[in-house]
Structures are given as structure tokens and as C-alpha cells.
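User: Assemble these into one structure.

Assistant: Restating your components, then the assembled model:
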Amino acid sequence: MWWREAVIYQVYVRSFADADGDGMGDLPGVRSRLPYLRRLGVDAVWLTPFYPSPQVDGGYDVADYRGVEPLFGSLADLEGIVHDAHELGLRVIVDIVPNHTSSAHDWFQAALAAPAGSKDRARYLFRKGAGPDGAVPPNDWQSNFGGPAWTRVIEADGEAGEWYLHLFDAAQPDLDWTNTDVVEEFQDVLRFWLDRGVDGFRIDVAHGLAKDQEMPDLGEQFVAGGPAPFGHPHWDRDAVHDVYRGWRSVADEYEGDRAFVGEIWLDEVDRVAQYLRPDELHTAFNFHFLLAPWEAGALREAIDVSIGALRDVGAPATWVLSNHDVIRHVTRYGGGELGTRRARAAALLMLALPGGAYIYQGEELGLPEVGDLPDELRQDPTYRRTGGERLGRDGCRVPIPWTPDGPSLGFGDGAPWLPQPPEWAGLSVATEEDDRGSTLRLYRDALAIRRRHDALGDGEMSWLDSDGDVLVFRRDRRFGCVVNAGAAAVPMPDALKGAAVLLASAPLDDDGSIPSDTTVWFESGASASANPHDS
Ligand code: NOJ
């Protein structure tokens, strides 16, 4: 069961590699860089949506679930990626977006053309407005991107009519998952991609599909944004589990250990664990770890709570520090040298923990968030829908640098769709390849050790005693990990005396103590030090 311990690399297709020079990443670009991912040492690649889409929300507005957006290439290009990836020993996971379609999807266009109460409208969540003339949204639900979650349509007679629900942008109408057309369509879409050899799916907004059919107001009880608490009228309703039981039986018809990973933002890990019961999804993103500040106590708690809750359902933990929706962790952890140092330490912590891990493109280069994009270039609908109050997520989506020069630092031959900061020349793949102390080389070393070391990946961990700012744990008798998240250097813990340093996120002090914001991997019984900073 590869997914119990896989390291999965997230390719944000728009910003990974641009083969045709139009400034936008594409599938031929991804295909050409698969050897880089193989060399990095990851096990699988997750591709963000590449389907036909108006790109209102970076492709999370899907107009056709069985095709490829011409901006990104063709179905043959996708098949080429699956083929080459498999030849290289990499698995491929694709994104599936079941909570909503694009407003350009045939179903929604048919729904707009059809009258209230029709079968076409019944696939979405159309409702009459409130107030005497229906001019008030049906309830107080809010779009995740800001503003009301309802938009009113103009009916065939030219009059304002029903409203439809969209928990995201108005161009992303929510589907009604009580409708059997919807249920059957998505099972068929799964088969379409499984037949093309994909190894699994990342499920967008997996906890959002079922809505309270009464559609009560949120009132004071629930605030919009952030992880969802229990009892919410449109997040984490029990009915959603039926959907995934159906999906699991589809995946189980196929050979080759196909897997689902859910994007499930909930307050309580116990509720996330419900999605990972043996007849539902395989794994889920662990946002508790991502949301924890760089503090030993908070990290330890996120780790314990996650492992504890998932163990009850027999699911492995997964760990993630960044993705295309959050501020890059170099910046979250303080930015600059401090942020980079902590990010390196966090990476070694993450990769030493039991279970699987996700790497977001560019984190292996130590890329920070880009905070100063020109406003007119921002594309995230959040920026527009909040009148600029929330900047949105463009700052973590800037195309990644491959070389220190060229019109887009090796991303492609044209100007990239979002400009790269000039200092990224020093963080390019080519630059870091040549630097023994670079973050790229750290990730590569860590992944190589992880591949060969039996103690790493799936399995158990046990904490050893440590001071407040320090985390010390073992994976087995031979492998130990120390994280010093504090401001002062700490001596090597007694329990690990005599163990050899396998890898360290920063050079150790001359007396062997572990400096501030540093993680060290130790191997007991090994003789030679493999600390890259020694050479
Ligand atoms: C989560 C995706 O990761 C995000 O990028 C997208 O905007 C929303 N879901 C809506 O599909």
C-alpha cells in the first residue's frame, strides 16, 4: 500500500514548467521535468486541475471533467505523463472537483436556460429568494472567497428569478449531491481517469458536498472561513460519507492500489478520521500540522492529535507544510534567513514522521511567498470578491525558477503569468543543484535516506523526554530525530549519545550541540557521519 508512506509532490500545473512559451505552465512542461522529480526522490506527483476551464479559480472551475484545457495541452499529453511517470517509478494523482462545476459546464448552461423546478436545475442548488419580491439571498451563507454564497439569475422572460448557491466564486455553482445524475456522473468520471492509468485522486473540498437540505442560516453560531466546526449546515454533513463509500467501491474494482486523498479542512481530527474508515477514502491532508506555529509544544500536539485520531480507523497520517492555498511556510515561519532556517528544520521533521508527506512545488528550493505582486496582475477571485481586503493566494503560485537567467528563470521562453522576484535567480534549481548546502540538496538527501531507511515512512514513533523548546523522538531503535525549535543551542540528548548524525538542517556547533531552529536525524549503530555540512 504505497499511499501509506508516499511522498507526493504537488505540481501546480499553471506554474511548474511552460513548454510552449505562452507564460502559462502546461502538461508538456510537466512531462519534460519528470526526471527532475525522480531525481528529487519523491514517490508520486499530484497534478492540480488541467481540465477545460475558464480559469476563474485557477482551474478549480471545471467545464468538462473528461478533457484537457487547450492552454495546458491535450489528453495525449496527460497520457504521456502517466506513461513516463510510471516508467520512472512515479505514481500520478489527479485532482477531482466534485463540490461545484464551472458556470461554463454544459449542465449549468442547461440549468440557466431551463425554468425553475426543471430537471436541469435540480443538479444544482437553485432556491427562491427571501423577502416579498425574492430580492434577498435565500440565507446568510457566505462564499469562501468573500461576499454572499448566492447569485441571482435572470430568467428567460428577462426578469430576475431564482438564486443559486456557490460556496466559492459565482462562476463555481455547487452541485446537489442528492441528485442521482450527479452521483452517477462522478463515478463515471472516476472510471474515465482510472481507465487512463491514474493512481489516485485528490478530492477538492471533500467535506463540502452534502448540505443541510433545510438550508438554515449560519447565524451567530458559525463564522465563515477557517476550518469548519461540527454541526455546520454545509460542511462535514454525515451524508457525504455515502458518496465516498460509492467512490471506494469504484476504485476497488481496479487493480493496482488506487488511492483517494481528501482535502478536508475541519476543526477536529476525529471528524477527519471518519472519512478514512476502511470503506471510504485512503488518506487526507493534515492541516493541523500545517496550521501549527513553529513552537515545539504546538507541533507536538498537532502530531499527537493527528496520529491518535487516525490510528483509531487504521489510517496513516500525512504531513504537509505548504500548498497552493496557503502562505508559503518560509514566510509563515518568519521569512528571510529565520524563515528559511525554520522551513529546513520543519522539512526534516515532516519527513521523519510516520506516514506520508506532501511537498508543494518550490518548497524544496526554499521559495518564500511573493508579497508584492502588482494588484492588476492578481488573479485569485478572493482579491476581487473582497475588494482587495484579502490579497488571495497568488503569492504562493508564482512560477518556479529553474535557471538563474532567461525571461522567466527557465520556467519557459516567455514572460510568466505572474512575475518572479529577481532574487529568485539565486533560488533556481540549477543554482541549488551546485550548492551542497542548498535546500534542494537537503530535500534530496532527506528523501534518499527516507527511501533506504526501514525506520522511516509508515510505522510508529515514540517521544523521548526533552526540554520545552525541543522535540526528541525515535522511529525505531536505530533512528532518532531532534528538533530544536527554541532560540538557544541545546546539547545532544543523552538518549542519543553515541549515535551518528545522518542529516542536519543546519551545521551543528563545534561542540556537537544543536543550534536554534535546527532538526537533526540520528542513526544509532552507524559509524560514518553523513552530515552534508561536513563535506
Ligand atoms: C480548494 C482548492 O485547493 C482551492 O485552490 C480552490 O479554490 C477551492 N478548493 C475551490 O475549488
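The chain has two domains: 2-100+181-433, 106-165.
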